[in-house]
Amino acid sequence: MVDTNDEWIRTRTGIHERRILKGEGKGTSDMIVPTVNNLLNNTNVKPEEIDLVLVATITPDRMLPATAMHVAKRCGLVNAFGYDLNAACSGFLYGLETARRFVESGAYKNVILIGADKMSSIIDYKDRNTCIIFGDGAGAALIQPSQNGYGVQDSILKADGSGVELLYQHAGGSAYPPNADTVANREHFVYQDGKHVFKAAVQAMSGICQEILDRNGLTGDDIDWLVPHQANIRIIDATRERMGLPREKTMVNIHKYGNTTAGTLPLCLWEYKDQLKPGDRLLLTAFGGGFTWGAIILTWGC
């Protein structure tokens, strides 16, 4: 469909395979619902005990209502309020800080945070700049009060609107609502200026990681696991190398899933959960369209 080959994709991005959600009428919530049900079963928390559900996504089932409402209905979260959060690939990171603050307030005890995107729904498979990168996926986490001092230790979140024209979806919103022309001109697909986004992502992710380490008097030696957004293996390597971390201490699954946008961080945590132990210090970082980026240090408590 585009001028590329498997070797080029693997060497330039690190992606070997991806998952695509197929089926008429299937949306992001169809990936989320089984994920949330598994989370509840694994944590022995009842659906009615959930206070809040946050869905980080840029591919909601519909513009209205929020995908969080579909999830609450289908998963039986009858006592939860909820909403969607749009921060592109930084969505789960932004959502984690949001969930943290709700729990720290003392008003809420059980918050489900979800990162999920059906990127195949907004990708132009004739555009090599985007079609080789993105996949579909969802992950979820249960955020609860810490009883032992574990959990989120510090966070730095940032945004810079100078990137709004470098990674975006032109049509579909209130400024350019759908019509025959926007569809014919393929304006509902994601556009990316790959070279500029790559450079910005490397600078932002490596820089923010060093900033949060310095602020907490830490070095790369104090980090047990780097949990980076899975955008490109070269971005991941540049970030860990600046911190002096080996690949063995870096969570990587981009080869299996590609870039699932808001889903990459929770999918990494899920894949590596058997290698994590209580007290491990994790550094999460992400970069997304807009631009949005940030870093969070947390102590694993499961």
CATH superfamily of the largest domain: Thiolase/Chalcone synthase
Order of helices and strands: HHEHEHEHEEEHEHEHHHEE
Kindly give the count of domains.
2
Structural class: alpha/beta
Kindly summarize this structure in a few lines.
With 302 residues, the chain is of the alpha/beta class. The protein is built from ten helices and ten strands. Strand 1, helix 3 and strand 2 form a beta-alpha-beta unit.
What does this structure look like?
The chain has 302 residues and is of the alpha/beta class. It folds into 2 domains: 6-143, Thiolase/Chalcone synthase (Peroxisomal Thiolase, Chain A, domain 1), CATH 3.40.47.10; 151-299, Thiolase/Chalcone synthase (Peroxisomal Thiolase, Chain A, domain 1), CATH 3.40.47. Helices cover 33% and strands 22% of the residues. It has helices at 6-13, 28-43, 67-75, 91-104, 128-131, 180-184, 194-215, 233-243, 254-257, 264-271, and strands at residues 52-56, 81-85, 111-118, 136-143, 151-163, 167-169, 190-192, 225-228, 281-288, 290-299. The strands form 3 sheets. It has a 4-stranded mixed beta sheet, with helices on both faces. Strand 1 (52-56), helix 3 and strand 2 form a beta-alpha-beta unit. Helix 2 packs across helix 3 and helix 7 (194-215) runs parallel beside helix 8 (233-243). The protein is globular, with a radius of gyration of 19 Å.
